[in-house]
Amino acid sequence: MNLKTFPGGVHPREEKELSEHCAFEIMPDPGVIILPLSQHLGKQAKPLVEKRAAVVKGQVVAEADGFISAPVHSPVNGTVKSIGRESNSSGFVKEALVITPTAPAEGEEAPAPILLPPLDVDSITPDQIRQRVKDAGIVGQGGAAFPTFVKLSPPEGKHIEVVILNGCECEPYLTRDDRFMIERPEAIVGGLKLIMKALGVASGVIGIENNKPAALESMQKASAGENGIIVCPLKTKYPQGAEKMLIKAWNGREVPPGKLPLDVGAVIQNIGTAVAIWDAVTKGEPSITAALTVTGRGIRNPKNLIVPVGTPLKDVIDFCGGLTDDAAKVIVGGPMMGVAQHDLSAPVMKATSGIVVLTMAEAKGEQETSCLRCGKCIDACPLHLLPTRLARLAQVNKLEEAETEGITVCMECGSCAFTCPAHIPLVQWLRLGKQRVIQMQRKRATA
Amino acid sequence: MSTVTVTEAPSGRDLLITSSPHMHSRWTTKQIMWFVVLSLLPCVISAVVYFGFTQLLLIATAVVFAAGTEALIQYLMKKPVTVSDGSAVITGLLLGLILPPNFSLVFTALGSVFAIALGKMVFGGLGYNIFNPALAGRAFLQAAFPVAITTWTIPNFAVDSVSKATPLAAFKFDHVLTGFESLFVGNVGGSLGETSAIAVLLGGGFLLVTGVANWRIPLSMLVGVLVFGGAIWLIDPAAPNPLFHIFAGSFLFGAMFMATDYVTSPVTGLGMWIYGLAISLIIVVIRVYGGLPEGVMYSILFMNAFVPLINRYTRPAIFGEAGK
After folding, report:
1. Is A383 on the interface with B (CB under 8 A)?
2. Do A419 and B32 touch (CB under 8 A)?
């Protein structure tokens, strides 16, 4: 079968078998909740509670500050222990609320969680959908954590033709979206219809890599008879789940450098985001849980979990039987783009998709050798960049040249570094060069 | 970038911290090189079958002197000795296989020293050389010992190769067309590793199937020889037909093992096509109109020089820019 895909990319070992058959489990509240105020791209949310304040599950504890921001809700009943800087699983130290969950005293009942009023999906208006997504604090589950409400509010004059639900889950190891598609297909289709309604779009596509046959079948069944919704099997290839690659696979259109999917008439949403939207509208649930895969050969019992946002990584790891003796690297996110952790007290965030623990044998790198000019990185780059050339320019700090040769276009997918037989850290150099070029551009703009 | 280890307080473990990606393909430089060595074994076997066991001594001389030269230069320059990466072994093997059977061992050793010292190390070693070192070594021998390098041996099991000459020379100078069956199995005159199309295709096929060699270069050379060789043959039926171009001489060996050398071939897809087509065009021109019966070595060396230029002008359009 000739499946849709994009040119380039790589084929990492999939490793999905470790957790793909594990149904979601709900993890109990941990002993402490660390609630970062920056769980989204954009400005940090503004705290609304003081130290020692009692909070109730679902209560807004920080409000959105500006257009590209999202409110934060308490995932538990408890007391605010402190407000300060805490390390964050994105690799930075950021402002966070620390909440001590409290169990109700004997004979007393726990206070009811603060939910939003459920809305009727048939009579709901596009504005109501946007407002609900905003109030619920939903952010994109695909990795960048862009506030979803912003994506549902395209600027005037942009014509959107299609909403693509991203069920690729092209990162190795991760099975969260796969499990969502198997366990909650109706919520996904419902969420997709809400997104389509909010954007006034008649066409919806659910793109799924063909290494998830159960998910494909489940989604096909759930979307049968739905007008304008198509399930599209895609070739299993990394990074098929990148927005630009997904659009390229679907209709061959290329998002130009510096432009957004909506410039070519598409809006992409993650599977998990669709579920969150559905739950926010139909059940009034704010974004207080994260669905994630905890997996890898460095963890004893791989699982797919629903955990309260703010749960420290080490509690999640312990809930999965703890680390094995040869565990060597803990990654938040997938192994291709995720962030290696040094501090396991950092919390799970709204957009955390997984925790992958690699063993020493898997994590230790090879010695770097000189470039063979094999061109494998060029074949792999889905954006048609020349990684070796850009890495070289970054090394010698030729920033203007790197800029004209497209370094800022790089989405840091890591396909080049993955494929390099000389083990040159190509994407790492590109990342560094890109940062420096962006700094240079900022300076130029202010000068 | 180096790995930083940080003491992880809660569990008392050291966790590795590196920048993503945290997974890597199975390829390493060393593995690729040893795959190439492996792919040359069928040609070594065909050399032994057609020209006798003594040829192993010739090939071994080429390998030992190539690897030894690299190790010695690295040692003298106080650089890490990287002979175990296999690249010098490949150069020696390739050089040995493109020499005539029973070639002088002293000349062979000289060729190997030249190939590594002046073909590779002066440019900075692996990854930096402009010309294919093995071909550079052979070009040196061709210039220095023109008689020895064109003295051919009659192979074992020879059927229709009546003279000692190679099929290309027989065609060019005596208008004798060697049968395809002989060209295919390899019981014809020629350099050690190039006479048997089966052996070359076996090893080359292994490189293509494993993804070590990029398919674009052999394919573009094939297309090139069919188009250019075919055109000339259609105009002038006295010229060799394109299939003879493919199966006689070093064409297949060059297409599979020489032109596909990473370091000296283009890195872009379009560049590989231009490179392969140009090599074929030059081969056909030299074979049909030139004074020499063969043209593979010069064609590849000539095009090696253009690789930086080809790379520069075949930079692919960045994703999303083509439509602008």
Report:
1. yes
2. no
Is A191 or A108 the better-scoring residue by pLDDT? A191
Question: Helix, strand or coil for residue A208?
Answer: strand
- Cβ of A340 within 8 Å of Cβ of B22? The answer is yes
Q: Which two tokens stand for residue A180?
A: 């969502």
- Identity of the residue numbered B65: F
Of all residues in chain A, the percent with pLDDT exceeding 90 is: 87
* B195 contacts B187 by C-beta, under 8 angstroms: yes
DSSP string, B231-272: HHHHH-TTSPPHHHHHHSTTHHHIIIIITT-STTS-SSHHHH
Which DSSP symbol is given to A21? T
Minimum mean pLDDT range among A100-104, A324-328, B1-5, B176-180: B1-5
Q: Answer yes or no: do A418 and B25 touch at CB < 8 A.
A: yes
**Pick from A259, A297, A291: which is nearest to A278 by CA?**
A291
Residue A155 burial by Cβ neighbours in a 10 Å radius (0-12, 13-18, 19+)? exposed
Q: What's the mean pLDDT in A228-243?
A: 96
Judged by CB atoms closer than 8 Å, whether chains meet at B16 and A386 is answered as no
Residue A398 token pair = 């030729």
Q: Are B248 and B85 in contact (CB under 8 A)?
A: no
Count chain A–chain B contacts defined by CB atoms under 8 A: 176
A333: left (phi over 0), alpha (psi -120 to 50) or beta: left
Question: Residue A403: which of A393, A415, A417, A416 has the closest Cα?
Answer: A393
Q: How confident is the model at residue B163 (pLDDT cuts 50, 70, 90)?
A: low
At residue B162, the pLDDT reads 54
pLDDT at A365: 83
Q: Cβ of B126 and A369 within 8 Å?
A: yes
| Structural element, H or E, at residue A394 | helix A387-395
From B85's Cα to the closest Cα of chain A, the distance in A is: 10
* Percentage of residues in chain A having pLDDT higher than 70: 100
The C-alpha of A183 sits at a distance from chain B's nearest C-alpha, in angstroms, of 29
Burial degree of A127 (CB within 10 A; 0-12, 13-18, 19+): exposed
**Other CB atoms closer than 10 Å to residue B281's CB: what's the count?**
18
Burial grade of B80 (CB within 10 A; 0-12, 13-18, 19 or more): exposed
